[in-house]
């Protein structure tokens, strides 16, 4: 691809800007963890290898100095057959996907912009949705979401899924850790990553379904959330709706026991707090091997989370702002 290195530099330039503006608003624990993994990515260090702590510390200091030079800069357009707004990922991908690359841009949690540029591993169509799977990322910002759903397109980042699997399986050593036999830890990681890529796709398909049911007002409601806690609750409600519509029914239908274990072992934070019924049903399935109670909990969940989502939208439309303090009132 002509001027590909210039494109990498432009995308990384914008990544530095978003990191300079947003990275240090994270909690210290989350910030240090993300920085360690960012160092691993930049230096191509496999997950089976330890990080050189002294070098990571020096790199972190230098990276923060670098960000201080970027914080007040504007985001740069991407020059591909003319100038393209860096947030117009669809326009960029119309030009680079045929060349074997994929670009992602959008807003994540708490309004942080995300950018990445990677090699296109595969492209597929499922129903009305296009799926672009990237591997070998050439440019990215500090936080790498596993996937994003935009305008009928699912962007799956295999590198981010690999990290999620490493942290979710090898660190926790739950039932899911024993589902992926292979000759070496690195080989086992690749087997598990491929399996969980499908689970992530199922979730994003569920996001598309949830979006159709909830309507366009949802994104405005999230961006207008009156507090961080409100945004966390609202995002968890939609995530649970997507999982009950697609992720969990899909995994049960396919008999993906390993992915079901992985899902529940890593169900955490607000999603876990809001859905104790599913946790109880999962434990019953583990004890007796009967998926019936789990399927029933998922069906109840799809109805419950849709009702909760619509009620929140109704409240937002009336009040013009959404402030939620007590997640217990939405619990199932």
Please characterize this protein's 3D structure:
The chain is of the alpha+beta class. It has 2 domains: 4-159, no CATH class; 186-330, no CATH class. The protein is built from 12 helices and 7 strands. The strands form 2 sheets. A 5-stranded mixed sheet has the order 3-4-5-7-6. Strands 1-2 form a two-stranded antiparallel ribbon. Strand 4 (113-126) and strand 5 form a beta hairpin. Helix 5 (158-170) crosses helix 6 (185-214), helix 6 crosses helix 8 (228-254) and helix 8 (228-254) packs antiparallel against helix 12.
Could you give a short description of this structure?
The chain has helices spanning 4-22, 28-43, 53-70, 89-96, 158-170, 185-214, 217-223, 228-254, 257-265, 269-274, 276-288, 292-319; strands at 78-79, 83-84, 101-107, 113-126, 129-140, 147-150, 153-157. Helix 1 (4-22) crosses helix 3 (53-70).
Query: Which sheet architecture does the biggest sheet show?
Result: 5 strands, mixed
For the record, the count of structural domains works out to 2
Strand order of the largest sheet: 3-4-5-7-6
Number of strands: 7
> What would you call the shape?
globular
State the helical fraction.
55-70%
What separation lies between the terminal Cα atoms? 51 Å
Amount of beta strand: 5-15%
Number of helices: 12
Mean pLDDT: 91
Q: Could you give the order of the helices and strands?
A: HHHEEHEEEEEHHHHHHHH
| Cα-based radius of gyration, to the nearest Å | 20 Å
Alpha-beta content class = alpha+beta
Poorly predicted runs: none
Task: Describe the secondary-structure layout.
Blueprint: H1 4-22, H2 28-43, H3 53-70, E1 78-79, E2 83-84, H4 89-96, E3 101-107, E4 113-126, E5 129-140, E6 147-150, E7 153-157, H5 158-170, H6 185-214, H7 217-223, H8 228-254, H9 257-265, H10 269-274, H11 276-288, H12 292-319
Helix pairs in contact: 1-3, 5-6, 6-8, 8-12, 11-12
